[in-house]
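Response to reviewer comment R2.3. The reviewers asked that we include at least one raw input/output pair. We reproduce the pair for TetR/AcrR family transcriptional regulator here without editing.
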Amino acid sequence: MAHVSAVERRPQLIKAAIDLMTRKGVAAGSTRAIAAELGVAQATVHYTFGTKEDLYAAVMAQITEDLVAQLAAAAPAGGGFEETLAALAGELWRSMAEPATNHQLLTELTMYALRTPRLTEARESHYRQMLGVTTELLTATAERTGFALTEPAEVVARFFLAGFDGLTMQRLSLPDGDAERVGLRALVAATVALAGGRLALTDVRLD
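Raw output as returned:
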């Protein structure tokens, strides 16, 4: 059998871990199970990553990278401030609602990381990146459209992401499609109002 370097094996193991834990949850993600998912020896996981926590950190980094790219691409070209916020909310919601996007797995890993000191940096890095891309998009949109922010863009981004996190937990715990649509519209309206605009409910595209 041809030797596969750790550099080549790394993305394979990350994908195997994501596939396994998306189906079965974080609790099922032992190094033995992840190795079996890929069809390699358990020692391969430890040789490539060192520990299970190191692999989990790499999984969180990969999912975050994908999500940040989705958000950056979601902002409509030439869209207004409110339209851009609605587009970001819709993209985040579609990502959260579709199992294949791994957003739920990222939520589970974040909760796991709260009790796992070795994953503190991975957890904080995820939020810093999400906050960063949202802040950048809001700043760029405000500058391009002449929207006068009455609060710093980072404050507005934090408010928006905090509200979305709350809606995510409601969806995962007690789904209600109609209430979720109203909640997303209210989140966009409240964020625009905080940023300096008028309070008005704007439809959020979810398809």
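The CA atoms of residues 107 and 169 lie 9 Å apart. The mean pLDDT is 90. Further pairs are available on request from the corresponding author.
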